[in-house]
Write a structure and sequence with these properties.
Layout: H1 4-7, H2 10-16, E1 25-37, E2 43-46, E3 78-80, E4 83-85, E5 104-105, E6 114-120, E7 125-129, E8 141-156, E9 162-164, E10 169-177, E11 183-191, E12 197-203, E13 211-219, E14 224-248, H3 261-268, E15 274-277, E16 307-308, E17 314-315, H4 321-331, E18 334-339, H5 358-373, H6 379-386, E19 395-400, H7 407-423, E20 428-431, E21 446-447, E22 450-453, H8 455-459, E23 474-477, E24 479-482, H9 491-506, E25 511-515, E26 520-522, E27 533-535, E28 540-542, H10 544-554, E29 559-566, E30 570-571, E31 577-583, E32 585-596, E33 601-603, E34 610-614, E35 616-620, E36 623-627, E37 632-637, E38 646-657, E39 661-668, E40 672-679, H11 680-683, E41 685-692, E42 698-704, E43 712-720, E44 723-728, E45 731-737, E46 739-740, E47 743-750, E48 755-762, E49 768-775, E50 779-780, E51 784-789, E52 809-813, E53 819-824, E54 828-837
Parallel strand pairs: 1-49, 2-15, 2-25, 15-18, 18-19, 19-20, 20-21, 21-23, 22-24, 23-25, 26-27
Antiparallel strand pairs: 1-29, 3-4, 4-5, 6-8, 7-8, 8-14, 9-14, 10-13, 10-14, 11-12, 11-14, 16-17, 27-28, 29-47, 30-46, 31-37, 31-39, 32-33, 32-36, 32-38, 34-37, 35-36, 38-43, 39-40, 40-41, 41-42, 43-44, 44-45, 47-48, 48-54, 49-53, 50-54, 51-52, 51-54
Helix pairs in contact: 5-6, 5-7, 9-10
The structure holds alpha-L-arabinofuranose.
Enzyme class: hydrolase
Protein name: non-reducing end alpha-L-arabinofuranosidase
GO molecular function, one term: alpha-L-arabinofuranosidase activity
Length: 838
């Protein structure tokens, strides 16, 4: 028999003992140098109806298409097969109509989730009808006809199966209209996937012609996670049905029209400081006509029309404005409402309401705030009272739009800001502009940059906020996630987010809030690559990124303390091709020459070897000219060799448009590399940007610069060992260095427990031993708590079948002192909680 020690490899044994290798580096934590307060608002959540996050997810309704509205087409939209096409609205930035191919998925099922089976007799049919609307806002009902005496089973699949559990109760509510005197009887059933009856209840139908509502409790005799809801009809005639709803009796806090308990508890466990609602792109709609209208999301759920939302399915909006505010109150979070500013999604159709209609949208936002905060005597707060909540709700933030930008947005933001602040000065208002956006408004409380990136990007961005200017604004990172090259979301991605968060937490004087996105995914309908929490009909699982979020929220110190970390770094290798472009700008380029590290030069022939990527490009008289019709224009120099360290020189002239020049280098594997954006951000700023898929985050360091039309500019970019230097007319303008850092640390002090909290990310395959010096502490307890998140393989992912593959492990460490060595495990996030008096 092997002993425990015989089973362990040497590094593993070292880790078991805490630290035994020689320290490779040193962390100095100076408790006397107090940094920013780490606000309780820092870690929150962002709900959006995407991936069936609400319907078929957090919202506990078990019937899909309960109101038979799922095939209703939004105003102005057109269906062709399995595609829905938006109307030809005008994009307010480009002036152009949507590309004719811009289409979204559409179900070809005429009556999604419902089916009719003839059990006896013949000729039975079901069809949608708007003959006798139950509610004017929900005009569609289902008409079931049995032309001759017979028996049918009308079934609903739920959201990829209904979770029915033995001895549990379910609340049924549905409506029938016995228009053509259906003569017969009905039976309500819950049926397992194998046909087993889990519940069977006869129902006496009212012979009345007008709508009649039934409600009652069903108790399940067995368990099946993939059950169906069935109404069996036996007889002859026609029956209308509408709003067929089934809820588990047990919901989160047992609220009516409530939330699925396990999912809500998984969110609550994150201790979110705030909840953002309703989105995301759904706020804007593909076009304005299918935006979320909050007023249609309150009141009796049977009267809510729902909406075909941006993510390709119709949502009931059962988890509406009231339910969102109630959830905030239930979990002790603050509410953040995102309003529409009269702009459709700019990444899709980008329509804008006429200026004279902006006041309608401002008033709509003010009404939403009144609903939440009014004293019960005002128009909309009275409705809140009618809906069962006399006291105000904890609404604290309003985001003015979602992912909007450009001159139209900037003006609208300022109008909304003034109108909301005049009535509700206590609210924090958020602009959707990213870094630097604070300069583009008259006044701004917070800006909201978003990042969906690769692990490399976040591993390289821990210092991003160290270099942001301080001023009269704060930052809310409303959406961020590693969602490229990480499968469904693996440990590497989670550690990259953890590394990024060390920079967020260290800069909490500026960054006051952050929320990962998207939050929820029904595994049967993933429409976004990586999402924090997965579930199916009966299981829920937090991915490794969820564990990171939780670890940061659970280990948030009261304030930061100065932490110096000296570690070995490696230069970044930049290698790839060169490209030229413009954003909403027409440019000419000439005299492009590359000087390689060995002194050789490669001169470009502007008429050959260029591959247009976007926009229209013409060559002539030694120049290459880029123009519209779209916003982006760029062209790749298809050289046989990829350039590493080199010096790139060229001449550029702007002929028309909004900004300046885009000069790409190190381009590889499609959209990956770097760009020098000269006169970007509304022709005001020049900075290097990383190109990471469709993301182009700014690399720290920028200068103010305005590009004039008609003038030839002499540009040079030196690329050397990860250092980029930009020269204009031979004068150095900007320099920045990219480092390959793989280990990250942030620390702070928790006043409530008297502990120093050190968070450390080791993003390498080696264990990493460092000495830790605690300076200016009066005492340190030897024994303390350690939480480690790691796994055998950095590519490991949690799944519903293996939800704890990447899971935090708690242990006790007996070696803390004013100076101690610690070995961090490969590919890990570690939290050290050290009892210390300071
Ligand atoms: O989180 C998914 C989407 O990403 C959000 O709807 C949108 O705001 C962003 O583009």
């Amino acid at each position: 028999m092997k002993t425990l020690h015989q089973n362990l490899s040497l590094p593993a044994l070292a880790l078991l003992l805490g630290a035994c290798s020689q320290p490779e580096a040193q962390i100095n934590i100076d408790a006397a140098q107090r940094g920013a307060e780490v606000p309780s608002s820092l870690y929150g959540i962002f709900f959006e109806e995407i991936n069936h996050a609400g319907d078929g997810g957090l919202y506990a309704e078990l019937i899909q298409n309960r109101g038979f509205e799922d095939s209703s087409v939004p105003e102005g939209y057109r269906i062709e097969g399995d595609k829905i096409y938006p109307p030809a609205v005008c994009n307010h930035l480009t002036g152009s109509k949507p590309h004719p191919d811009l289409a979204f998925r559409w179900t070809t099922d005429e009556i999604p989730a419902w089916s009719l089976e003839q059990l006896a007799g013949e000729g039975a049919t079901m069809q949608l009808t708007t003959e006798y609307p139950l509610n004017s806002a929900t005009p569609t009902a289902l008409k079931v006809t049995l032309p001759v005496q017979g028996r049918v089973a009308l079934s609903n699949t739920g959201f990829w199966g209904i979770n029915i559990e033995k001895n549990k109760s379910y609340f049924l509510r549905f409506n029938t209209s016995n228009g053509n005197r259906f003569d017969g009887k009905a039976t309500i059933k819950l049926v397992g996937a194998d046909g087993t009856e889990l519940c069977n209840r006869p129902l006496a139908l009212d012979p009345d012609k007008s709508w009649c509502q039934y409600s009652g409790e069903l108790v399940a005799a067995g368990t099946d996670h993939n059950a169906r809801f069935v109404i069996e009809l036996e007889g002859k005639g026609t029956l209308l049905l509408d709003y067929v709803s089934l809820f588990p009796a047990e919901t989160f806090r047992n609220r009516e029209n409530g939330l699925r308990k396990d999912i809500a508890e998984t969110l609550e466990a994150m201790r979110p400081a705030f909840v953002r609602w309703p989105g995301g792109c759904v706020v804007e709609g593909i076009t304005l006509s299918n935006r979320i209208k909050w007023k249609e999301t309150i009141g009796d759920p049977a009267t809510r029309p729902g909406v075909y939302d941006t993510w390709g399915y119709r949502t009931t909006m059962g988890f509406g404005y009231h339910e969102f505010l109630q959830f905030c109150e239930d979990i002790g979070a603050e509410g953040m409402f995102v309003c529409n500013v009269g702009l459709g999604c700019q990444g899709r159709a980008g329509d804008a309401c006429p200026e004279e209609e902006v006041d309608f949208f401002i008033n709509d936002a003010l009404d939403a705030i009144d609903y939440a905060l009014g004293d019960g005597t005002t128009a909309w707060s009275r409705k809140r009272v009618e809906n069962g909540h006399p006291e105000p709700f904890p609404l604290k933030y309003v985001e003015i739009g979602n992912e909007n930008w450009g001159p139209v947005y900037e003006k609208r933001h300022d109008k909304f800001y003034k109108a909301i602040k005049a009535k509700y000065p206590q609210l924090k208002l958020i602009s959707t502009l990213g870094l630097g956006g604070q300069h583009r408004h008259e006044k701004v409380d917070m800006i909201d940059p978003h990042w969906y990136v690769s692990p490399e990007f976040f591993f390289a961005s821990d210092k991003l906020f160290d270099q942001q200017e301080r001023g009269d604004y704060e930052i809310y990172i409303g959406e961020y996630a590693v969602n490229q090259n990480v499968g469904g979301g693996n440990l590497v991605g989670a550690l990259a987010e953890a590394a990024f968060l060390t920079g967020v937490e260290r800069n909490s004087d500026l960054v006051k809030m952050a929320s990962y996105a998207p939050l929820l995914e029904n595994v049967n309908d993933r429409v976004w690559p990586t999402n924090l929490i997965w579930f199916d009909s009966h299981r829920v699982m937090g991915r490794s990124s969820y564990q990171v979020q939780k670890m940061y929220a659970e280990n948030r110190p009261s304030f930061n303390v100065a932490t110096a970390f000296e570690q070995p770094t490696h230069p970044v290798e930049v290698r790839g091709r060169i490209a030229l472009g413009g954003w909403n700008t027409d440019n000419e380029y000439k005299d492009l020459k590359v000087t390689l590290a060995d002194g050789r030069t490669v001169e470009a022939d502007m008429t050959q070897s260029w591959t247009p990527q976007e926009g229209t490009w013409t060559a002539g008289e030694g120049t290459l000219k880029g123009s519209g019709p779209g916003v982006m224009r760029w062209i790749l120099w298809s050289t046989p060799e990829a350039f590493g360290d080199c010096s790139i020189s060229l001449k550029a002239r702007k002929t028309a448009g909004a900004e300046g020049f885009l000069i790409y280098f190190g381009m590889h594997d499609g959209l990956n590399g770097y760009v020098l954006n000269i006169g970007g951000w509304g022709n005001q700023t020049t900075a290097f940007q990383r190109i990471d898929g469709n993301d182009m985050p700014q690399i720290p360091n920028n200068i103010s610069q305005h590009v004039e039309e008609g003038r030839w500019y002499d540009i040079r970019i030196d690329v050397k060992g990860g250092k980029f230097t930009y020269y204009l007319d031979s004068k150095q303008m900007l320099e920045t260095t990219i480092e390959n850092i793989q280990r990250y640390v942030v620390s702070g002090y928790d006043e409530s427990t008297g502990e120093l909290i050190v968070k450390f990310v080791n993003a390498t395959e080696e264990p990493f031993t460092t000495s830790v010096n605690l300076q200016n502490v009066t005492s340190v307890e030897r024994k303390g708590k350690v939480v480690t998140l790691t796994s055998n393989d950095p590519k490991d992912e949690n799944t519903l079948d293996d939800p704890k593959k990447v899971f935090p492990r708690e242990s006790t460490y007996n070696g803390f002192s004013e100076r101690f060595d610690y070995t961090f495990e490969p590919w890990s996030l570690t939290v050290l909680r050290i009892k210390a008096e300071i």
